[in-house]
């Protein structure tokens, strides 16, 4: 099965980082964490969603969060050393990462971004990440995910 062009970019970015990305395609969609977990057959908490936030209205960052959590923007701002944060708009997210929301992968962005990983992800050694589209995902060892993205561990999720 041919994978979409955006997912091919994720595979190439994985190759650049020494990671063999085993992309899986789910035509019915994996746009939400719940959709992805149902399609894959894994726990919701094993979904490593990549969410884009805007810090102090100037900087976009990516937060890896477990599928069963949401991010406390105040705690994120504090962890990032800024005065405020908010969820990025769809356009901000696309411009910063090069990918549409609902399929934002953990790496392969057009320019370096600060990346954070919430500690709730530590419940799993293997997680599933979006593969660049709302229909593609791939498994990755959590340690490899954090290394590949140069992510900093933070405690910013509401459980």
Polypeptide structure, described:
This protein has 159 residues and is of the alpha+beta class. It has a single domain (5-158), classed as Alpha-Beta Complex (YbaK protein), CATH 3.90.960. It has five helices and ten strands; from the N terminus they run H-E-H-E-E-E-H-E-H-E-E-E-H-E-E. The protein has helices at residues 5-16, 33-40, 73-80, 90-97, 142-149; strands at 24-25, 48-55, 59-66, 70-71, 85-87, 114-118, 126-130, 136-141, 152-154, 157-158. Strands 5-2-3-6-9 form a five-stranded mixed sheet. A hairpin with a 5-residue loop joins strand 7 and strand 8 (136-141). The mean pLDDT is 95.
Average of pLDDT: 95
What is the CATH topology assignment?
Answer: YbaK protein
Low-confidence stretches: none
Task: Please state the CA-atom Rg, rounded to the nearest Å.
Answer: 14 Å
Oligomer: single chain
Query: What does the overall shape look like?
Result: globular
Walk me through the topology.
Layout: H1 5-16, E1 24-25, H2 33-40, E2 48-55, E3 59-66, E4 70-71, H3 73-80, E5 85-87, H4 90-97, E6 114-118, E7 126-130, E8 136-141, H5 142-149, E9 152-154, E10 157-158
Parallel strand pairs: 3-6, 6-9
Antiparallel strand pairs: 1-8, 2-3, 2-5, 4-10, 7-8
At a glance:
This protein is of the alpha+beta class and 159 residues long. The chain has helices at 5-16, 33-40, 73-80, 90-97, 142-149; strands spanning 24-25, 48-55, 59-66, 70-71, 85-87, 114-118, 126-130, 136-141, 152-154, 157-158.
